[in-house]
Amino acid sequence: MSDLISHYINGQTVAGASGRRGDIYNPAIGEVIRQVDFANGAEVQAAVDAAQAAFPAWAATPPLRRARVMFRLKELLERHMNELAPIVTEEHGKTVDDAKGSITRGLEVVEFACGMPHLLKGEFTENVGSEVDSYSLRQPLGVVAGITPFNFPAMIPLWMSPIAIACGNCFILKPSEKDPSFANKLAELYKEAGLPDGVFNVVHGDKDAVNAILENPGIQAVSFVGATKTAEYIYHTGVAHNKRVQALGGAKNHMVIMPDADMAQATDAIMGAAYGSAGERCMAISVAVAVGDQVADNLIERLTPRVQSLKVGPGNDPQTEMGPLVSREHFDKVMGYIDAGVREGADLVLDGRSLNLQGYENGYFMGGSIFDRVTTDMSIYNEEIFGPVLSVVRAPDYASAVKMCNDHEYGNGTAIFTRDGDAARHFTNSVQVGMVGVNVPIPVPMAFHSFGGWKRSLFGDHHMHGPEGVRFYTKMKAVTARWPGGIRAGAEFSIPVMG
Ligand code: NAD
Protein backbone atom coordinates (compact mmCIF):
# COMPACT_ATOMS: atom_id res chain seq x y z
CA MET A 1 0.00 0.00 0.00
CA SER A 2 1.45 3.40 -0.94
CA ASP A 3 2.03 6.17 1.61
CA LEU A 4 -0.60 8.36 0.02
CA ILE A 5 -4.10 7.34 -1.05
CA SER A 6 -5.32 9.50 -3.94
CA HIS A 7 -8.51 9.74 -5.94
CA TYR A 8 -9.40 7.22 -8.66
CA ILE A 9 -11.05 8.90 -11.60
CA ASN A 10 -11.67 7.64 -15.13
CA GLY A 11 -9.75 4.41 -14.61
CA GLN A 12 -6.63 5.89 -13.05
CA THR A 13 -5.16 7.22 -9.85
CA VAL A 14 -5.31 11.01 -9.79
CA ALA A 15 -3.17 13.00 -7.35
CA GLY A 16 -5.05 15.40 -5.11
CA ALA A 17 -4.95 19.07 -6.11
CA SER A 18 -6.67 20.75 -3.17
CA GLY A 19 -3.58 20.74 -0.94
CA ARG A 20 -5.64 19.18 1.86
CA ARG A 21 -4.91 15.73 3.27
CA GLY A 22 -5.88 13.59 6.24
CA ASP A 23 -3.88 11.14 8.35
CA ILE A 24 -4.79 7.45 8.34
CA TYR A 25 -4.04 5.60 11.58
CA ASN A 26 -3.46 2.01 12.45
CA PRO A 27 -5.63 1.89 15.58
CA ALA A 28 -3.77 -1.11 17.03
CA ILE A 29 -0.56 0.92 17.37
CA GLY A 30 -2.03 4.44 17.41
CA GLU A 31 0.31 5.65 14.65
CA VAL A 32 -0.15 7.38 11.32
CA ILE A 33 0.54 4.82 8.59
CA ARG A 34 -0.31 6.83 5.48
CA GLN A 35 -2.26 9.85 4.30
CA VAL A 36 -5.27 10.44 2.10
CA ASP A 37 -5.96 13.32 -0.29
CA PHE A 38 -9.06 15.41 0.41
CA ALA A 39 -11.02 16.46 -2.68
CA ASN A 40 -12.38 19.93 -3.33
CA GLY A 41 -15.25 20.87 -5.63
CA ALA A 42 -13.08 20.83 -8.77
CA GLU A 43 -11.90 17.29 -8.06
CA VAL A 44 -15.46 16.10 -7.45
CA GLN A 45 -16.40 17.80 -10.73
CA ALA A 46 -13.63 15.87 -12.53
CA ALA A 47 -15.16 12.61 -11.26
CA VAL A 48 -18.65 13.74 -12.33
CA ASP A 49 -17.31 14.67 -15.80
CA ALA A 50 -15.69 11.23 -16.19
CA ALA A 51 -18.85 9.47 -15.00
CA GLN A 52 -21.11 11.54 -17.26
CA ALA A 53 -18.89 10.81 -20.25
CA ALA A 54 -19.00 7.07 -19.52
CA PHE A 55 -22.74 6.96 -18.84
CA PRO A 56 -24.34 6.79 -22.33
CA ALA A 57 -22.29 3.79 -23.47
CA TRP A 58 -22.63 2.01 -20.13
CA ALA A 59 -26.39 2.57 -19.95
CA ALA A 60 -26.66 1.18 -23.50
CA THR A 61 -24.60 -1.91 -22.63
CA PRO A 62 -26.98 -4.90 -22.41
CA PRO A 63 -27.70 -5.84 -18.78
CA LEU A 64 -26.32 -9.31 -19.46
CA ARG A 65 -22.91 -7.87 -20.32
CA ARG A 66 -23.04 -5.57 -17.31
CA ALA A 67 -23.79 -8.62 -15.18
CA ARG A 68 -20.79 -10.45 -16.63
CA VAL A 69 -18.55 -7.75 -15.15
CA MET A 70 -20.11 -8.57 -11.78
CA PHE A 71 -19.39 -12.28 -12.26
CA ARG A 72 -15.72 -11.43 -12.84
CA LEU A 73 -15.68 -9.03 -9.87
CA LYS A 74 -17.05 -11.80 -7.66
CA GLU A 75 -14.20 -14.10 -8.72
CA LEU A 76 -11.61 -11.38 -8.14
CA LEU A 77 -12.93 -10.56 -4.66
CA GLU A 78 -12.77 -14.24 -3.77
CA ARG A 79 -9.30 -14.68 -5.23
CA HIS A 80 -7.91 -11.61 -3.44
CA MET A 81 -9.72 -12.13 -0.12
CA ASN A 82 -6.47 -12.85 1.76
CA GLU A 83 -4.91 -9.55 0.74
CA LEU A 84 -8.11 -7.45 0.98
CA ALA A 85 -9.07 -8.39 4.54
CA PRO A 86 -5.78 -7.21 6.11
CA ILE A 87 -6.27 -3.77 4.48
CA VAL A 88 -9.55 -3.47 6.39
CA THR A 89 -7.93 -4.75 9.59
CA GLU A 90 -4.94 -2.42 9.37
CA GLU A 91 -7.03 0.76 9.10
CA HIS A 92 -10.21 -0.20 10.98
CA GLY A 93 -8.90 -2.57 13.65
CA LYS A 94 -11.40 -5.45 13.34
CA THR A 95 -10.05 -8.99 13.25
CA VAL A 96 -9.02 -10.47 9.91
CA ASP A 97 -11.77 -13.11 10.19
CA ASP A 98 -14.37 -10.41 10.80
CA ALA A 99 -12.98 -8.39 7.89
CA LYS A 100 -13.29 -11.46 5.64
CA GLY A 101 -16.87 -11.95 6.81
CA SER A 102 -17.70 -8.34 5.97
CA ILE A 103 -16.18 -8.66 2.49
CA THR A 104 -18.21 -11.84 1.99
CA ARG A 105 -21.42 -10.01 2.93
CA GLY A 106 -20.51 -7.39 0.29
CA LEU A 107 -19.63 -10.09 -2.21
CA GLU A 108 -23.14 -11.49 -1.82
CA VAL A 109 -24.47 -8.18 -3.17
CA VAL A 110 -22.17 -8.64 -6.19
CA GLU A 111 -23.73 -12.10 -6.63
CA PHE A 112 -27.19 -10.55 -6.42
CA ALA A 113 -26.18 -7.97 -9.06
CA CYS A 114 -25.17 -10.87 -11.36
CA GLY A 115 -28.91 -11.48 -11.73
CA MET A 116 -29.59 -7.97 -13.02
CA PRO A 117 -31.03 -9.01 -16.42
CA HIS A 118 -33.80 -10.76 -14.51
CA LEU A 119 -34.21 -7.98 -11.95
CA LEU A 120 -34.64 -5.31 -14.62
CA LYS A 121 -37.42 -7.16 -16.41
CA GLY A 122 -40.48 -4.95 -16.60
CA GLU A 123 -44.16 -5.74 -16.84
CA PHE A 124 -46.23 -6.14 -20.00
CA THR A 125 -49.96 -6.09 -20.56
CA GLU A 126 -51.31 -7.07 -23.94
CA ASN A 127 -54.46 -5.21 -24.96
CA VAL A 128 -54.87 -2.62 -22.20
CA GLY A 129 -57.38 -1.35 -24.76
CA SER A 130 -58.31 -2.69 -28.17
CA GLU A 131 -55.02 -3.28 -29.97
CA VAL A 132 -53.16 -1.18 -27.41
CA ASP A 133 -50.32 -2.72 -25.38
CA SER A 134 -48.66 -1.30 -22.28
CA TYR A 135 -45.32 -2.06 -20.66
CA SER A 136 -43.09 -0.68 -17.98
CA LEU A 137 -39.33 -0.60 -17.87
CA ARG A 138 -36.63 0.46 -15.46
CA GLN A 139 -33.87 2.75 -16.66
CA PRO A 140 -30.72 3.95 -14.87
CA LEU A 141 -30.61 7.40 -13.26
CA GLY A 142 -27.23 8.57 -14.57
CA VAL A 143 -24.38 9.46 -12.20
CA VAL A 144 -24.98 8.40 -8.60
CA ALA A 145 -22.81 8.73 -5.49
CA GLY A 146 -22.19 6.71 -2.33
CA ILE A 147 -20.89 8.22 0.92
CA THR A 148 -19.81 5.56 3.40
CA PRO A 149 -18.83 5.22 7.09
CA PHE A 150 -15.66 3.91 8.74
CA ASN A 151 -17.09 0.77 10.29
CA PHE A 152 -17.51 -1.29 7.11
CA PRO A 153 -15.01 0.07 4.57
CA ALA A 154 -15.54 -2.92 2.26
CA MET A 155 -19.10 -4.12 2.82
CA ILE A 156 -20.99 -0.84 2.57
CA PRO A 157 -19.41 0.35 -0.73
CA LEU A 158 -20.35 -3.16 -1.93
CA TRP A 159 -23.94 -2.72 -0.73
CA MET A 160 -24.27 0.18 -3.14
CA SER A 161 -21.97 0.12 -6.16
CA PRO A 162 -22.64 -3.33 -7.70
CA ILE A 163 -26.38 -2.70 -7.90
CA ALA A 164 -26.04 0.89 -9.09
CA ILE A 165 -23.55 -0.15 -11.78
CA ALA A 166 -25.37 -3.31 -12.90
CA CYS A 167 -28.50 -1.15 -13.29
CA GLY A 168 -26.53 0.95 -15.80
CA ASN A 169 -25.47 3.92 -13.66
CA CYS A 170 -22.01 5.39 -13.18
CA PHE A 171 -20.86 5.57 -9.56
CA ILE A 172 -18.76 7.94 -7.45
CA LEU A 173 -17.68 6.60 -4.05
CA LYS A 174 -16.64 8.90 -1.19
CA PRO A 175 -15.41 6.47 1.47
CA SER A 176 -14.66 7.29 5.10
CA GLU A 177 -11.43 9.23 5.46
CA LYS A 178 -10.50 6.99 8.42
CA ASP A 179 -10.08 3.80 6.36
CA PRO A 180 -10.15 4.76 2.68
CA SER A 181 -7.66 2.29 1.14
CA PHE A 182 -10.09 -0.53 0.36
CA ALA A 183 -12.00 1.80 -1.98
CA ASN A 184 -8.99 2.13 -4.30
CA LYS A 185 -8.44 -1.64 -4.32
CA LEU A 186 -12.09 -2.06 -5.25
CA ALA A 187 -11.64 0.42 -8.10
CA GLU A 188 -8.68 -1.61 -9.41
CA LEU A 189 -10.70 -4.84 -9.19
CA TYR A 190 -13.65 -3.29 -11.07
CA LYS A 191 -11.23 -2.29 -13.81
CA GLU A 192 -9.66 -5.75 -13.91
CA ALA A 193 -13.18 -7.20 -14.11
CA GLY A 194 -13.65 -5.27 -17.36
CA LEU A 195 -15.63 -2.24 -16.16
CA PRO A 196 -15.09 0.67 -18.59
CA ASP A 197 -13.17 3.68 -17.26
CA GLY A 198 -15.33 6.32 -15.63
CA VAL A 199 -18.10 3.94 -14.52
CA PHE A 200 -16.65 3.56 -10.97
CA ASN A 201 -14.72 6.48 -9.47
CA VAL A 202 -13.43 7.26 -5.99
CA VAL A 203 -13.03 10.73 -4.51
CA HIS A 204 -11.60 10.94 -1.02
CA GLY A 205 -12.17 13.61 1.55
CA ASP A 206 -14.19 15.04 4.36
CA LYS A 207 -17.27 17.24 4.48
CA ASP A 208 -15.98 19.54 1.70
CA ALA A 209 -16.05 16.61 -0.73
CA VAL A 210 -19.45 15.53 0.61
CA ASN A 211 -20.93 19.01 0.16
CA ALA A 212 -19.50 19.19 -3.37
CA ILE A 213 -21.29 15.89 -4.13
CA LEU A 214 -24.57 17.04 -2.59
CA GLU A 215 -24.57 20.33 -4.50
CA ASN A 216 -23.38 18.95 -7.87
CA PRO A 217 -26.24 19.07 -10.40
CA GLY A 218 -24.62 16.26 -12.42
CA ILE A 219 -25.30 13.73 -9.65
CA GLN A 220 -28.80 12.25 -9.66
CA ALA A 221 -28.86 10.23 -6.44
CA VAL A 222 -26.93 9.79 -3.21
CA SER A 223 -26.72 6.71 -0.99
CA PHE A 224 -25.39 7.41 2.47
CA VAL A 225 -24.56 5.34 5.55
CA GLY A 226 -23.22 6.93 8.74
CA ALA A 227 -24.25 8.70 11.93
CA THR A 228 -27.83 9.97 12.26
CA LYS A 229 -26.80 13.62 12.52
CA THR A 230 -24.88 13.33 9.24
CA ALA A 231 -27.62 11.21 7.61
CA GLU A 232 -30.25 13.82 8.37
CA TYR A 233 -28.05 16.58 6.93
CA ILE A 234 -27.24 14.53 3.82
CA TYR A 235 -30.91 13.74 3.25
CA HIS A 236 -32.20 17.31 3.54
CA THR A 237 -29.31 18.87 1.61
CA GLY A 238 -29.45 16.26 -1.14
CA VAL A 239 -33.22 16.57 -1.53
CA ALA A 240 -32.93 20.38 -1.59
CA HIS A 241 -30.61 19.86 -4.57
CA ASN A 242 -33.21 17.69 -6.31
CA LYS A 243 -31.51 14.37 -5.69
CA ARG A 244 -32.97 11.02 -4.78
CA VAL A 245 -31.47 10.22 -1.36
CA GLN A 246 -31.35 7.18 0.90
CA ALA A 247 -29.52 8.02 4.14
CA LEU A 248 -29.03 5.30 6.75
CA GLY A 249 -28.15 6.49 10.25
CA GLY A 250 -27.31 5.30 13.74
CA ALA A 251 -28.88 2.70 15.97
CA LYS A 252 -29.55 1.41 19.47
CA ASN A 253 -30.51 -2.20 18.97
CA HIS A 254 -32.47 -3.91 21.76
CA MET A 255 -32.41 -7.65 22.34
CA VAL A 256 -35.42 -8.78 24.37
CA ILE A 257 -34.77 -11.90 26.45
CA MET A 258 -37.95 -13.66 27.55
CA PRO A 259 -38.12 -15.87 30.66
CA ASP A 260 -38.46 -18.99 28.49
CA ALA A 261 -35.39 -18.22 26.35
CA ASP A 262 -32.51 -20.67 26.14
CA MET A 263 -30.10 -18.65 28.29
CA ALA A 264 -26.96 -20.36 26.99
CA GLN A 265 -27.95 -19.46 23.44
CA ALA A 266 -28.90 -15.93 24.42
CA THR A 267 -25.55 -15.42 26.17
CA ASP A 268 -23.58 -16.69 23.17
CA ALA A 269 -25.63 -14.42 20.93
CA ILE A 270 -24.94 -11.33 23.03
CA MET A 271 -21.21 -12.05 23.17
CA GLY A 272 -20.86 -11.80 19.39
CA ALA A 273 -23.50 -9.16 18.85
CA ALA A 274 -22.39 -6.73 21.55
CA TYR A 275 -18.62 -7.16 21.50
CA GLY A 276 -17.84 -8.32 17.92
CA SER A 277 -15.99 -5.61 16.00
CA ALA A 278 -15.67 -3.78 19.38
CA GLY A 279 -19.36 -2.85 19.15
CA GLU A 280 -18.71 -0.71 16.07
CA ARG A 281 -21.58 -2.17 14.05
CA CYS A 282 -24.85 -0.44 13.32
CA MET A 283 -26.55 -3.79 14.01
CA ALA A 284 -24.64 -4.44 17.25
CA ILE A 285 -26.78 -5.28 20.27
CA SER A 286 -26.17 -2.44 22.71
CA VAL A 287 -29.21 -2.97 24.97
CA ALA A 288 -30.24 -6.30 26.51
CA VAL A 289 -33.82 -6.05 27.79
CA ALA A 290 -34.22 -8.80 30.38
CA VAL A 291 -37.88 -9.59 31.06
CA GLY A 292 -37.97 -10.15 34.82
CA ASP A 293 -35.25 -9.90 37.48
CA GLN A 294 -34.53 -13.61 37.30
CA VAL A 295 -33.59 -13.37 33.62
CA ALA A 296 -31.44 -10.30 34.33
CA ASP A 297 -29.56 -11.95 37.21
CA ASN A 298 -29.04 -15.12 35.20
CA LEU A 299 -27.78 -13.14 32.19
CA ILE A 300 -25.34 -11.04 34.21
CA GLU A 301 -24.00 -14.12 35.94
CA ARG A 302 -23.37 -15.88 32.62
CA LEU A 303 -22.07 -12.83 30.73
CA THR A 304 -19.62 -11.40 33.24
CA PRO A 305 -16.93 -14.12 33.13
CA ARG A 306 -17.28 -14.42 29.36
CA VAL A 307 -16.77 -10.69 28.77
CA GLN A 308 -13.96 -10.61 31.34
CA SER A 309 -12.05 -13.25 29.42
CA LEU A 310 -12.57 -11.73 25.96
CA LYS A 311 -9.28 -11.88 24.07
CA VAL A 312 -8.59 -8.26 23.19
CA GLY A 313 -5.70 -7.60 20.84
CA PRO A 314 -4.58 -6.48 17.40
CA GLY A 315 -6.90 -7.62 14.63
CA ASN A 316 -4.10 -9.40 12.76
CA ASP A 317 -3.49 -11.80 15.68
CA PRO A 318 -5.55 -14.95 14.95
CA GLN A 319 -6.20 -15.38 18.70
CA THR A 320 -7.90 -11.98 18.98
CA GLU A 321 -11.66 -11.86 19.51
CA MET A 322 -11.98 -8.08 19.84
CA GLY A 323 -9.74 -5.46 18.23
CA PRO A 324 -9.22 -1.78 19.06
CA LEU A 325 -11.62 1.11 18.52
CA VAL A 326 -11.06 3.04 15.32
CA SER A 327 -9.53 6.29 16.61
CA ARG A 328 -8.34 8.13 19.69
CA GLU A 329 -11.29 10.50 19.39
CA HIS A 330 -13.78 7.63 19.29
CA PHE A 331 -11.99 5.85 22.15
CA ASP A 332 -12.34 9.00 24.28
CA LYS A 333 -16.01 9.27 23.36
CA VAL A 334 -16.74 5.69 24.45
CA MET A 335 -14.76 6.22 27.69
CA GLY A 336 -16.87 9.34 28.26
CA TYR A 337 -20.08 7.30 27.98
CA ILE A 338 -18.86 4.82 30.60
CA ASP A 339 -18.09 7.76 32.92
CA ALA A 340 -21.57 9.15 32.20
CA GLY A 341 -23.25 5.81 32.97
CA VAL A 342 -21.55 5.67 36.37
CA ARG A 343 -22.51 9.31 37.07
CA GLU A 344 -26.11 8.67 36.08
CA GLY A 345 -26.39 5.77 38.54
CA ALA A 346 -26.21 2.64 36.38
CA ASP A 347 -24.50 -0.34 37.97
CA LEU A 348 -21.12 -0.89 36.24
CA VAL A 349 -20.75 -4.64 36.63
CA LEU A 350 -17.69 -4.85 34.42
CA ASP A 351 -15.41 -1.91 33.63
CA GLY A 352 -13.39 -2.14 30.40
CA ARG A 353 -11.71 1.23 30.84
CA SER A 354 -8.53 0.11 32.52
CA LEU A 355 -7.34 -2.47 29.97
CA ASN A 356 -3.64 -2.16 29.29
CA LEU A 357 -2.30 -4.26 26.47
CA GLN A 358 1.42 -4.92 26.70
CA GLY A 359 3.27 -3.91 23.56
CA TYR A 360 0.25 -1.93 22.31
CA GLU A 361 0.13 0.84 24.88
CA ASN A 362 -0.66 3.47 22.24
CA GLY A 363 -3.42 1.44 20.58
CA TYR A 364 -7.09 2.29 21.14
CA PHE A 365 -7.91 -0.87 23.09
CA MET A 366 -10.67 -1.19 25.62
CA GLY A 367 -12.08 -4.17 27.47
CA GLY A 368 -15.75 -5.08 27.33
CA SER A 369 -18.06 -3.29 29.77
CA ILE A 370 -21.46 -4.27 31.19
CA PHE A 371 -23.91 -1.91 32.83
CA ASP A 372 -26.83 -3.36 34.80
CA ARG A 373 -29.97 -1.53 35.98
CA VAL A 374 -29.82 0.95 33.12
CA THR A 375 -32.95 3.08 32.90
CA THR A 376 -34.55 4.78 29.93
CA ASP A 377 -33.70 8.30 31.10
CA MET A 378 -29.92 7.70 30.98
CA SER A 379 -27.67 8.95 28.17
CA ILE A 380 -26.07 5.48 27.86
CA TYR A 381 -29.56 4.17 27.03
CA ASN A 382 -30.64 6.93 24.71
CA GLU A 383 -27.47 7.60 22.71
CA GLU A 384 -25.49 5.38 20.40
CA ILE A 385 -22.16 4.53 22.08
CA PHE A 386 -20.72 2.45 19.22
CA GLY A 387 -18.28 0.65 21.49
CA PRO A 388 -17.98 -2.58 23.54
CA VAL A 389 -20.47 -1.46 26.18
CA LEU A 390 -23.66 -3.41 26.90
CA SER A 391 -26.55 -1.90 28.83
CA VAL A 392 -28.85 -4.36 30.63
CA VAL A 393 -32.31 -2.95 31.24
CA ARG A 394 -34.70 -4.80 33.54
CA ALA A 395 -38.26 -4.84 32.17
CA PRO A 396 -41.09 -6.00 34.46
CA ASP A 397 -42.95 -7.73 31.62
CA TYR A 398 -43.06 -8.35 27.87
CA ALA A 399 -45.33 -5.37 27.14
CA SER A 400 -42.91 -2.89 28.71
CA ALA A 401 -39.98 -4.48 26.83
CA VAL A 402 -41.77 -3.92 23.49
CA LYS A 403 -42.70 -0.39 24.54
CA MET A 404 -39.01 0.38 25.14
CA CYS A 405 -38.10 -0.75 21.62
CA ASN A 406 -40.94 1.29 20.18
CA ASP A 407 -40.31 4.45 22.18
CA HIS A 408 -36.61 4.65 21.28
CA GLU A 409 -35.72 7.23 18.63
CA TYR A 410 -33.75 4.65 16.64
CA GLY A 411 -35.32 1.69 14.87
CA ASN A 412 -32.55 -0.13 13.04
CA GLY A 413 -32.46 -3.71 14.35
CA THR A 414 -33.89 -5.70 17.24
CA ALA A 415 -34.19 -9.31 18.37
CA ILE A 416 -36.32 -11.42 20.65
CA PHE A 417 -35.02 -14.57 22.33
CA THR A 418 -37.86 -16.91 23.26
CA ARG A 419 -39.30 -20.38 22.68
CA ASP A 420 -42.82 -18.95 22.57
CA GLY A 421 -44.10 -18.70 19.01
CA ASP A 422 -46.97 -16.41 19.98
CA ALA A 423 -44.64 -13.94 21.69
CA ALA A 424 -42.26 -14.02 18.72
CA ARG A 425 -45.09 -13.48 16.27
CA HIS A 426 -46.56 -10.62 18.27
CA PHE A 427 -43.11 -9.05 18.57
CA THR A 428 -42.29 -9.24 14.86
CA ASN A 429 -45.70 -7.78 14.05
CA SER A 430 -45.78 -4.91 16.48
CA VAL A 431 -42.20 -3.75 17.01
CA GLN A 432 -41.42 -0.42 15.33
CA VAL A 433 -38.03 -1.45 13.99
CA GLY A 434 -36.89 -2.16 10.42
CA MET A 435 -34.99 -5.44 10.91
CA VAL A 436 -36.13 -8.06 13.41
CA GLY A 437 -34.46 -11.27 14.60
CA VAL A 438 -36.18 -14.21 16.28
CA ASN A 439 -33.42 -15.99 18.21
CA VAL A 440 -31.06 -14.30 15.73
CA PRO A 441 -29.13 -11.44 17.36
CA ILE A 442 -27.89 -9.58 14.26
CA PRO A 443 -30.68 -9.92 11.70
CA VAL A 444 -28.84 -8.37 8.75
CA PRO A 445 -30.89 -9.27 5.68
CA MET A 446 -29.12 -11.21 2.95
CA ALA A 447 -28.19 -9.40 -0.27
CA PHE A 448 -31.40 -10.46 -2.07
CA HIS A 449 -33.52 -8.87 0.66
CA SER A 450 -33.18 -5.20 1.58
CA PHE A 451 -31.41 -3.58 4.53
CA GLY A 452 -32.78 -0.58 6.38
CA GLY A 453 -34.06 0.76 9.66
CA TRP A 454 -37.08 2.78 10.69
CA LYS A 455 -37.51 6.05 12.58
CA ARG A 456 -34.29 8.06 12.89
CA SER A 457 -32.19 5.17 11.57
CA LEU A 458 -33.13 5.91 7.95
CA PHE A 459 -34.05 9.04 6.03
CA GLY A 460 -35.61 8.45 2.63
CA ASP A 461 -37.96 5.91 1.15
CA HIS A 462 -35.72 3.08 0.00
CA HIS A 463 -33.80 0.48 1.94
CA MET A 464 -30.46 -0.69 0.63
CA HIS A 465 -29.58 -3.58 -1.74
CA GLY A 466 -32.02 -6.34 -2.71
CA PRO A 467 -35.14 -5.31 -4.63
CA GLU A 468 -35.22 -1.89 -2.94
CA GLY A 469 -31.69 -1.22 -4.23
CA VAL A 470 -32.81 -1.90 -7.81
CA ARG A 471 -35.77 0.47 -7.33
CA PHE A 472 -33.55 3.18 -5.84
CA TYR A 473 -31.05 3.12 -8.71
CA THR A 474 -33.61 3.07 -11.52
CA LYS A 475 -36.54 5.14 -12.68
CA MET A 476 -39.67 3.59 -14.00
CA LYS A 477 -41.03 4.33 -17.44
CA ALA A 478 -44.47 3.23 -18.65
CA VAL A 479 -45.08 2.88 -22.39
CA THR A 480 -48.46 2.65 -24.10
CA ALA A 481 -48.22 1.53 -27.72
CA ARG A 482 -50.65 1.27 -30.61
CA TRP A 483 -49.60 0.34 -34.14
CA PRO A 484 -51.11 1.81 -37.31
CA GLY A 485 -53.42 -1.17 -37.81
CA GLY A 486 -55.18 -0.36 -34.54
CA ILE A 487 -55.45 3.39 -35.01
CA ARG A 488 -58.95 4.68 -35.71
CA ALA A 489 -59.31 7.73 -37.96
CA GLY A 490 -60.30 11.05 -36.44
CA ALA A 491 -59.10 13.20 -33.53
CA GLU A 492 -60.23 12.49 -29.96
CA PHE A 493 -60.59 15.52 -27.70
CA SER A 494 -61.80 13.90 -24.51
CA ILE A 495 -59.38 12.08 -22.18
CA PRO A 496 -58.47 8.71 -23.72
CA VAL A 497 -60.37 5.83 -22.13
CA MET A 498 -59.16 2.33 -22.87
CA GLY A 499 -61.16 -0.84 -23.07
P1 NAD B 1 -20.11 9.67 10.03
O1 NAD B 1 -21.50 10.16 9.85
O2 NAD B 1 -19.20 10.45 10.91
O3 NAD B 1 -19.36 9.59 8.61
C1 NAD B 1 -19.95 8.93 7.50
C2 NAD B 1 -19.53 9.64 6.23
O4 NAD B 1 -19.99 10.99 6.24
C3 NAD B 1 -18.02 9.71 6.04
O5 NAD B 1 -17.73 9.45 4.68
C4 NAD B 1 -17.67 11.13 6.44
O6 NAD B 1 -16.57 11.64 5.73
C5 NAD B 1 -18.93 11.91 6.11
N1 NAD B 1 -19.18 13.01 7.06
C6 NAD B 1 -18.93 13.01 8.39
N2 NAD B 1 -19.33 14.18 8.93
C7 NAD B 1 -19.84 14.93 7.93
C8 NAD B 1 -20.41 16.23 7.87
N3 NAD B 1 -20.52 17.00 8.95
N4 NAD B 1 -20.82 16.69 6.68
C9 NAD B 1 -20.72 15.92 5.57
N5 NAD B 1 -20.17 14.69 5.57
C10 NAD B 1 -19.74 14.19 6.74
O7 NAD B 1 -20.20 8.15 10.49
P2 NAD B 1 -18.99 7.20 10.93
O8 NAD B 1 -18.50 7.64 12.27
O9 NAD B 1 -18.03 7.03 9.82
O10 NAD B 1 -19.78 5.81 11.07
C11 NAD B 1 -20.40 5.38 12.24
C12 NAD B 1 -21.89 5.63 12.20
O11 NAD B 1 -22.45 5.01 11.07
C13 NAD B 1 -22.64 5.06 13.39
O12 NAD B 1 -23.58 6.01 13.82
C14 NAD B 1 -23.34 3.84 12.82
O13 NAD B 1 -24.52 3.46 13.48
C15 NAD B 1 -23.63 4.30 11.45
N6 NAD B 1 -23.86 3.17 10.58
C16 NAD B 1 -25.13 2.92 10.18
C17 NAD B 1 -25.39 1.83 9.38
C18 NAD B 1 -26.80 1.53 8.93
O14 NAD B 1 -26.94 0.69 8.08
N7 NAD B 1 -27.81 2.17 9.46
C19 NAD B 1 -24.35 0.99 8.97
C20 NAD B 1 -23.06 1.29 9.38
C21 NAD B 1 -22.82 2.39 10.19
Describe the structure.
The chain is an alpha/beta fold. It folds into two domains: 4-249 and 457-479, Aldehyde Dehydrogenase, Chain A, domain 1, CATH 3.40.605.10; 253-438, Aldehyde Dehydrogenase, Chain A, domain 2. It is built from 16 helices and 23 strands. The protein has helices at residues 41-60, 63-79, 81-92, 96-113, 116-119, 155-166, 181-192, 207-215, 228-240, 263-275, 293-308, 328-343, 379-382, 398-407, 421-430, 466-472; strands spanning 4-5, 7-9, 12-14, 20-26, 31-38, 123-129, 132-140, 143-147, 170-174, 200-202, 221-225, 244-248, 253-257, 285-291, 347-350, 369-372, 389-395, 410-411, 413-417, 435-438, 454-455, 458-459, 474-482. The strands form six sheets. Strands 15-16-17-14-13-19-20 form a seven-stranded mixed beta sheet, sandwiched between helices. Strands 10-9-8-11-12-22 form a six-stranded mixed beta sheet, sandwiched between helices. It has a three-stranded mixed beta sheet with strand order 1-5-4, with helices on one face. Strand 2 (7-9) and strand 3 form a beta hairpin. Helix 1 (41-60) crosses helix 8 (207-215). The longest helix has 20 residues, at 41-60. The chain is globular, with a radius of gyration of 25 Å. It starts with a strand and ends in a 17-residue tail after the last strand. The model has no long low-confidence stretch (mean pLDDT 97). It binds nicotinamide-adenine-dinucleotide. Nicotinamide-adenine-dinucleotide (NAD) is lined by residues 147-152, 174, 176-177, 206-207, 210, 225-227, 230, 233, 248-251, 282, 384, 386, 412, 453, 457.
